[in-house]
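Can't paste images in this forum, so I'm doing it all in text. The chain is below; anyone willing to post the predicted structure tokens underneath?
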Amino acid sequence: MTKASPALLARLDRLAASRPPLDPGMAEFRMKLAAATPPEAVHWPLERQRAAWDTVCKAWQAPHPPGLSIYDDTFASRHGPLKLRIYRPEGADHRPGLLYFHGGGWVLGSLETHDDMCAELATGADVVVAALDYRLAPEHPFPAQYEDVLAFLDWVMAEGPTHGIDTARVIAGGDSAGGQMTASLAIALRDSGPSALRGQILIYPVLDADGETQSYRRNATSSALSRQEMLYYLDAFLGSAGSPARQDKLALPLLETDYAGLPPAFITAAAHDTLQDEAFIFAERLEAAGVPVMLRYEPELDHSYMRARHHSAPAFEGFKAIIEAAKTLAYHGILPEAAGRGPD
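Text version of the structure:
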């Protein structure tokens, strides 16, 4: 099991003791989410789970901002064709690219469930967003998602310029399970040589399989992502206890022992989220390895807060910080000075 350092454990204790209540707009979102996908949804047939999640996402979907060209494409991988969606701001100039990997526990989600967020990221950060419709578990467990991400990067580097992407300025990002894929990609590229990524954005990421952290225990039944749900997703993605995937750092980035040389990272953590502690631990390890890192802590928010951005003032501010980080990393390869919200 992954452990935080004693200093970090003490800090997490202080934060828990002073944590404010959940923001009302966030609470409204969480109630709507729970109505359509209650904890027992993990026992529903997969088709029903996925349909319910699609319905929830559509209910909270915002209109596309003006000035975007949005279209789908496919590319060939070793395991068959994969679908992607391009969000390209108006103008003839090539822009930096953001490779986006959606959340959903590797089991749920699609290009549709994250469509409005990708559109707002493209407009707000003035980047070309390329979103991947990767294979889902449990039909396709790890390393399927890792393989799809690598194939996607190869496609972007080869074909990106025809879609307005400046391939010398590419970052990657994702929420929840998509954060895991982003961190995994960054580690794999670092290990294989000079990285193609200028930065990584990890939005309330899954980084480990330790269901006994303080945030897992504290938020076990009160979060938009319950402990039961998260453990179900981990089993679908990794297989049962003892499977080789549970010992693979590309499946669980907190198993890595050397974080030196990774690209700058912007990481978000929400106080009411089961996954909060993983973000703190990862940020601590990056900082110790000399990697530029910014951890933005959201004391009034929960998992999936990006979906509540138009219903919750703190969620809106958190989403603006993600946009600012994406723009600064993509255009300059550095972290923004003002987007962080320190945890102390």
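The chain has a mean pLDDT of 95. The CA atoms of residues 128 and 234 lie 31 Å apart.
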